[in-house]
Specification:
7 helices, 3-stranded antiparallel sheet, 8 strands, alpha+beta
């Protein structure tokens, strides 16, 4: 009977005995587990090489851009491009990525209403008044794009004007406030500033305006004193 040599039982160089035992227990041909697709989804429906498209120009708070929508034969949107006038900016790159995401979602069967409802009322700059009479104001470029897509392909309900909340309450000054004595320190400082403005005296430290005082001149910004010559 042949006796196995101890050298044959020893693990290869650079491998510990525990690692050698784990490799022996691993079944032959075992591979890394693959991620399974748990959802049954429709295949991606790409647009034909030649398709109808609509281009819409917009302006929000002085920022101009274009929305380009490619459509299927039945007129449903299948791809969206959002191009801002300032190419290379952060906003332009963000809109390019967003348009790509919307296009892929539409081609995989995500309802346009779901996307529009999620993207409306988002708030970030630029925002403000627009040149579109149907959408007078927008809280962001994303809000404008979503409302325009909803109004163009879903329902005119997305184009209804929204009631802006009242941010500040206007308070009318009382008669006693208007007749208050204006010869206090604030009015003296204001008159001193207006008088010194003609002399164009500036602070040697911060460069702001100097106002005359009893001892010389005082900076209205940093408070440093300058003796009169």
């Amino acid at each position: 009977m042949q006796v196995a040599n101890s050298a044959d039982l020893a693990p290869p160089p650079g491998t510990s005995q525990a690692q050698g035992e784990k490799e022996e227990k691993r079944p032959a041909g075992a591979e890394a587990p693959e991620q399974r697709d748990l959802f049954n989804r429709d295949p991606r429906r790409k647009l034909p090489d030649e398709r109808k498209a609509i281009t819409h120009k917009f302006s929000i708070g002085g920022h101009e851009g274009y929305i380009i929508v490619g459509m299927y034969e039945e007129g449903a949107p299948g791809e969206v491009f959002i191009k801002m006038s300032k190419e290379g900016s952060t906003l332009s790159g963000f809109m390019d990525g967003l348009a790509l995401s919307i296009s892929i979602d539409l081609q995989y069967g995500v309802p346009l209403k779901t996307l529009v409802d999620k993207l409306t009322n988002t708030r970030f700059q630029p925002s403000g008044f627009t040149e579109n009479p149907s959408i007078r104001d927008a809280s962001s470029v994303l809000d404008y794009v979503a409302r325009w897509l909803g109004g163009r392909f879903l329902s005119s309900e997305y184009l209804k004007p929204r009631v802006a909340p009242i941010d500040h309450e206007v308070v009318q000054p009382s008669m006693s406030t208007s007749t208050t004595n204006t010869t206090g320190p604030e009015s003296v400082a204001a008159s001193s500033i207006s008088g010194a403005a003609g002399d164009a005296l500036s602070c040697p430290i911060c460069g702001m305006l100097l106002v005359p005082t009893v001892d010389g001149y005082k900076c209205v910004n940093c408070g440093s004193l300058s003796r009169s010559s």
